[in-house]
Design brief:
The chain is mainly beta. It folds into 2 domains: 94 residues, Jelly Rolls; 142 residues, Jelly Rolls. The protein is 7% helix and 49% strand. The protein has 1 helix and 21 strands. It has a 6-stranded mixed β-sheet, with no helix packed on it. Strands 12, 13, 14, 16, 19 and 21 form a 6-stranded antiparallel β-sheet that branches. Strand 13 and strand 14 form a beta hairpin. The two termini are 32 Å apart.
Length: 277
């Protein structure tokens, strides 16, 4: 059922059943189908195509194949939203990016009955995935050591700094980031053994493409200095969410100082980011 642009009523016009059915009944049914979806009805891929009849559909592979590609979603008009879910957990529907009328950025697989995708139709009849943001915590523990053995040194538990060393640095690249991610906060995790005077500092640094390369501290990216014995879980929340862009990399710069009998071990960091999914 398609949407019909409602007619403009004029005084003394005769309202026939056909007119009322087209402009009132059918349009109300259209709105009901697309704005307040009924339970999903099943569609089966045929030569890479499905034709939608409402907002919410489950999709199955042709002939119950283990996997099948979906290239084209037919039966849509500009602004229409479609929600799809796999019909069966044992059969995978693969929405193919750049094939037919799907523009998704990447292929998307519906491989269980709880994974959904929402799409919207543009004026050219192409279907685009609607994105949402989700906060995700990643762990980072792939340290970069400037002078292992004399400064920070790799250990089973993480990066270790021995006694009687001053202002020694080790770096923790955030190599899980994607363009468009938003860095919200992080926690530095580890343990300090203090017999004399131990300190641990950490800040988030942005590395910028330039000639020569430049670095800049991210506002709010520094933890409160650790200066006491015991395990630590030191947090820093950025002043504003830092959006990852092209030609920029991010690294945590950790600086430690130990006195006689002191030791520091950093396990790694837990970094909270906001990612479009």
């Amino acid at each position: 059922m398609a949407w019909t642009a409602p007619m403009t009523w004029v005084a003394a016009a005769i309202h026939t059943a056909a007119l009322l059915n087209t402009h009132l009944r059918d349009n109300l049914l259209f709105l009901r189908a697309y704005l307040s979806p009924d339970a999903a009805t099943e569609l089966t891929i045929a030569a890479g195509v499905i034709t939608v009849t409402q907002t919410y559909h489950s999709v199955d592979t042709a002939a119950d194949a283990a996997t099948d590609d979906l290239d084209t979603i037919a039966g849509v008009s500009e602004g229409q939203i479609v929600i799809l879910v796999a019909e069966h957990t044992d059969r995978t529907v693969v929405l193919k990016n750049g094939t037919g009328n799907l523009i998704l950025g990447t292929d998307i697989s519906l491989d269980n009955t709880s994974k959904h995708i929402a799409l919207i139709c543009d004026g050219a009849g192409n279907m685009h995935a609607l994105l949402t943001a989700r906060d995700v915590t990643f762990t980072a523990d792939a340290f970069q050591y400037p002078a292992p053995g004399t400064d920070w040194t790799p250990e089973l538990k993480g990066a270790g700094l021995a006694a009687s060393l001053v202002a020694k640095k080790v770096w923790l690249p955030l190599n899980f980031l994607k363009i468009g991610d938003g860095i919200i906060s992080y926690k530095l995790v580890g343990d300090a053994v203090e017999a004399a005077a131990v300190t641990v500092d950490c800040k988030l640094v942005r590395v910028n493409l330039a000639d020569p390369l430049t670095t800049s501290d991210v506002a709010g990216g520094g933890i409160t200095q650790i200066d006491a014995d015991g395990d630590f879980d030191a947090a820093a929340t950025l002043t504003a969410i830092e959006t990852v862009a092209t030609d920029k990399q991010y690294v945590l710069e950790i600086a430690g100082t130990t006195g006689v009998g002191d030791a520091i071990t950093v396990i790694g960091a837990e970094v909270l980011i906001r990612r479009l999914v």
